[in-house]
Design a protein that fits this description.
Elements (H helix, E strand, L loop, with lengths): L1 E3 L11 H11 L7 E4 L1 H7 E2 L2 E2 L1 H14 L5 E5 L17 E5 L4 H14 L9 E5 L5 E6 L9 E6 L3 H5 L6 E5 L13 H15 L3 E8 L2 E9 L5 H13 L7 E3 L12 H10 L5 H8 L10 E4 L2 E5 H6 L5 E2 L9 E2 L5 H12 L7 H13 L8 H32 L7 H11 L41 H9 L2 H44 L13 H5 L14 H4 L6 E3 L9 E5 L2 E7 L1 H7 L6 E7 L13 E6 L5 H9 L3 E4 L9 E5 L5 E5 L2
Parallel strand pairs: 20-21, 21-22, 22-23
Antiparallel strand pairs: 1-2, 2-7, 3-4, 5-6, 5-7, 8-9, 8-11, 9-10, 11-12, 13-15, 13-18, 14-15, 16-17, 19-23, 20-24, 24-25
Helix pairs in contact: 3-4, 9-13, 12-13, 12-16, 13-16, 14-16
Length: 679
């Protein structure tokens, strides 16, 4: 039967789109008048695959009697359409600006198109709505469909079908919920934003809202759930809204610094702060190369996860530069303060020569690795020894970054990038790998700087030699001699420092294993100690103040069960969504998370591991997976190095168009991710 929006109807016979509109009307939102044609009417209307003309005319007349307007909009409302986890947006036809005389034909058109898509008549209903001829049309996502916290508003001066159909490129504006709206490109937008926020709160899920503006009035045309977000993503968004500051600029990121301890204990975090202090090994290494480093508070914990404050990191070396006003994540000269130190450091960094330090780094690292592990009783002595030896670790990481940057610059105009070239370099020139087989790792525990990490130490003393890539070989041989001679030392340095960076991780694990034993023994000697030894800071150990561990903030389970976004910024990010490979190779399989790997170990089904962070202990799963997709990481990530050694393809991607359970094909050379089939 045909029902007005405020009349009782059987909601089992109409789609969720109509149910949502009825609810919004009852709560006073401005909705164009509408009626619904329920699925019983559609069943009566469709006989076989034909529409009964007489019944169609009767239904059209009933609609016109109940909804007397000059023009109609006929919208699909499939019973399976626009659920929380599945949307059929854009799959069905909408007829706009329909005159009363053409209403029956518009209804026929929408129903025929649905039947052509094999939609059963009993699973289909319609919304017949007053058509509003708009001055402005738009679509608002109360949250970014790709997982961001922002409200995303797309609008266009004209009819809405051009916007939702992709026929025009609309203007876009973004607002953070917890921040004041400073610009209002459309009169009254500020108040409407508050209404859109209230609709999300009403339905307890981010919404995709189609709207229009005409003659000074805002109209909501339809509202449906955003289906690209899962429960975890929505929980994270709400947590960040409640936690992040509402004022001031910030740019926090998970990177190669934070991957060494993604969820650090209080003890590990305090150790990191010692490493990056003004008197720590980072400062000592920078001083060696003429860089005037100044410690900043560059670590932030959010939801128990470690983030690097990119602004603080930048200002520790380049104080005259800033990320704000935001320019897509590119730092720019901002103020005179610190200009002299910035100029000195810029000049010093250009003079760094990774190749000249290679022999020194290899010898110092080898000496540190083969030396006997010493267990000191005094935490102060143990910490001093740790920080002194950590200098060689940071120096190698620093020079590895410099070597990779120089190679990337040299390859900027080439068709071959570092990801492709480095694993193939052994096939192109004579190259001798370091022999690590005689280094004893029997006392090594864990895989990172995290003192809480007691996983089995993962290491490789031999590497998989990849088959010669014909494309790389052709490119290399086609280069003029001078270009090959120019590139060879650059590639050699990048390869060697990549090796040394992984060996430096060995030394990190060795030092952490020793420090862990010392601090654990020290804490065990305190009979009144309560709580874990990991919950005390380094300074509390040095001052012998470990008795009652402080209470740690409670973090919601739904946050600790997943990972927060890779990048958190106070301004709407315009940084491009990108994918790139860090370990070459092709793989196809079912996308699964780490918790599911064990389930597939004994099966022959190929799987691709999906993870947030490239932590080294994931190498334990290499024998059971075909490849890895990660949200964050780089060529110098320790797991990327291990994956290249093992021949496991790895892609870094911030895309959000695939889900666990999908069958995907990844290309570790190009970074491409192809969805073969959806779950």
């Amino acid at each position: 039967m045909v029902a007005r929006e405020f009349e009782p109807v059987n909601e089992k016979l109409i789609g969720s789109k109509a149910i949502s509109l009825r609810r919004l009307v009852s709560l006073g939102y401005t909705i164009p008048s509408f009626v619904t044609i329920d699925s019983d009417d559609i069943v009566a209307l469709v006989i076989g695959d034909k529409i009964n003309q007489k019944t169609l005319q009767q239904i059209a007349e009933k609609v016109k009697n109940k909804l007397t307007v000059t023009q109609y909009a006929v919208r699909s409302c499939a019973l399976a359409e626009d659920g929380q986890h599945q949307s059929l947006a854009g799959q069905f036809r909408t007829e706009l600006a329909v005159s009363p005389d053409n209403l029956s034909e518009a209804i026929r058109s929408v129903i025929n198109q649905a039947l052509g898509r094999s939609v059963a008549s009993r699973a289909f209903s319609l919304i017949i709505q007053e058509f509003i001829n708009p001055q402005i049309s738009g679509v608002t996502f109360t949250r970014d469909p790709f997982g961001g916290r922002e409200m995303v508003i797309n609008y266009y001066r004209g009819r809405g079908d051009a916007v939702v159909g992709g026929a025009v490129t609309p203007k876009e504006i973004r607002y953070f919920w917890q921040r004041p709206i400073t610009s209002e490109p459309i009169s009254g937008l500020r108040n409407e934003v508050l209404k859109w926020q209230s609709i999300e709160l009403l339905f307890a899920w981010p919404q995709d809202i189609e709207w229009c503006f005409a003659n000074g009035t805002w109209h909501i045309l339809q509202a449906r759930p955003i289906t690209s977000l899962d429960t975890l993503a929505v929980s994270q968004i709400k947590y960040l809204d409640a936690t992040l500051p509402s004022q001031g600029n910030f740019y926090w990121e998970k990177n190669e610094i934070t991957e060494i301890a993604p969820r650090p204990s209080r003890l590990t975090l305090s150790l990191l702060e010692k490493i990056y202090s003004d008197s720590g090994p980072v400062s000592m290494v920078y001083r060696k190369y003429g860089v005037r480093y100044q410690a900043t508070n560059m670590f932030t914990l959010l939801g128990g996860e470690l983030y690097c404050d990119k602004q603080a990191e930048l200002n520790s070396v380049m104080p005259a530069y800033d990320y704000f006003p935001w320019r897509g994540g590119v730092p720019h000269f901002s103020h005179i303060t610190g200009l002299l130190r910035t100029a000195i450091n810029t000049f010093a960094l250009t003079r760094v020569s990774p190749g000249n330090q290679l022999s020194h780094c290899r010898a110092a690292l080898r000496d540190a690795l083969v030396s006997k592990m010493v267990i000191e009783k005094d935490p102060a002595v143990a910490l001093r020894n740790f920080l002194e030896q950590y200098q060689i670790i940071f120096e190698i990481n620093f020079l590895a970054s410099q070597a990779m940057t120089r190679l990337d610059v040299a390859l900027r105009s080439s068709t071959i990038n570092s990801t492709t070239l480095l694993p193939q370099f052994f096939n192109l020139v004579k190259y001798q790998r370091d022999d690590l087989s005689k280094i004893s790792t029997i006392d090594f525990v864990g895989n990172s700087l995290d003192l809480a990490d007691t996983s089995r130490f993962i290491h490789q003393t031999t590497s998989a030699l990849l088959p010669l890539d014909a494309e790389v070989q052709s490119w290399w041989l086609a280069l003029p001699n001078w270009k090959r001679q120019y590139l060879t030392p650059l590639v050699h340095n990048a390869c060697k420092y990549t090796e040394l960076r992984e060996q430096a991780r060995w030394l990190t694990v060795k030092l952490v294993s020793s420090l862990r034993l010392i601090l654990k023994q020290f804490s065990d000697s305190k009979p009144k100690l309560t709580g874990s030894y990991l919950n005390f800071s380094i300074d509390e150990y040095l001052d012998d103040l470990i008795e009652v561990a402080p209470e740690l903030p409670l973090i919601p389970t739904e946050i600790t069960s997943g990972f927060l976004p890779t990048r958190i910024i106070s301004e709407s990010s315009t940084m491009p969504i990108k994918s790139y490979g860090v370990s070459i190779g092709m793989a196809e399989g079912k996308l699964i998370d780490l918790a599911s790997v064990k389930k597939y170990r004994k099966t022959k089904q190929k799987v691709i591991l999906y993870t947030s962070v490239l932590v080294p202990e994931l190498a334990l799963e290499f024998d059971y997976i075909s490849g890895i997709v990660a949200k964050t990481g780089g060529l110098l990530s320790h797991l990327a190095i291990l994956a290249r050694e093992k021949g496991v393809p790895v892609v870094i991607s911030s895309q959000n168009n695939y889900f666990l359970g999908d069958i995907v094909k990844i290309n570790g050379k190009t970074g491409d991710i192809e969805i073969v089939s959806k779950e």
